[in-house]
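Consider what follows.

. . .
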Amino acid sequence: MPEKPPSDVSSYIFVAQDFLGLNNPSPGQAARPPLPLKPTPAMSNTTSKALDAAKSTSQQAKNTLKTMTEETSTTSSGLLHHPYVRTALPFVNGGLAGMTATTVIQPIDMIKVRLQLAGEGAKNSARPSPLSVTRDIIAQGKVADLYTGLSAGLLRQAVYTTARLGFFDTFMNMLKVRAETSGSQIGFKERAAAGLAAGGLAAMVGNPADLALIRMQSDGLKPLAQRANYTSVVHALSSIAKAEGVTALWSGAYPTVVRAMALNFGQLAFFSEAKTQLKSKTQLSPQTQTMAASAIAGFFASFFSLPFDFVKTRLQKQQKAPDGSLPYKGMADCFRKVAKDEGILRFYRGFGTYYVRIAPHAMVTLIVADWLGFITK
């Protein structure tokens, strides 16, 4: 075999010759004269120019791609930091977080409502358990019945949670600016005030969707002939407004507002306070801080709001009798009659189920809201 040429352009010529069989002729075949292994000056010059052109083109492509990426990033960042977008983001993030949580928790909420309505008006009625209620719901229809009222629940979150988390973040940002200006820090009472105000305002806006949710979930408790058989939240809202008047959509608004203020006081104020304390006094990761703070917030939200949630459910479920009367005249009357006829502890019936519903809902909502807030900074 001919001696291998030096490692330059001629080496590629040598390989090509070898591939074509020019370097190793078959037996009986006359050896062909080898091609010139040394490139001519013209060949070297052409090769050099081609390599330079390829490098230049590659660099131009890299620069163009880098410029496009930077422009896209700048445009995206500029859009997220537009004043109107910054104002709307807390509301959008809150709504998305609430709807995600409701989709996960809806079956538990269905069981909670049925527990609160079971044995209405009877002090010594049999006490159902979450498992027995679940079995009854499935026995009457199918597993999908646990998601009855999901459309109303999603609408409620799109309105209520969008408003409450949006208002709370807005109020907290205002308080932060004021605290920085005065050289002070935000305390628990400021967080509590922000939570109470956000909850009350959001509850008024979201009451119609909340009413539709209760009516859809309680419809299965009625005799077949008396059921409204709502097909969607729109059907429920239109049917209620047509049969009882538009103002009926705000039935139970007072206890709904009070319940929302109590729930947000327990959830948002305690979540914000717990997260601040965990951040300053522990070495937990941010994710663990959020999980722990949301669990603490879920307990206090359940404890403060369950009695009002119970009364709200009773008031929103009630409908006029043939003579035009209602079982309860208002929140105070409902509290009085339930305490007298069913006992004070009835207000905390299903606390475990309520906590299991509130705590995961709070955790999912607050974690998703935190994540959305982080990626849209």
About this structure: Residues 219 and 229 are 7 Å apart (CA to CA). The two ends are 69 Å apart (CA to CA). The mean pLDDT is 79. The longest helix spans residues 41-80.
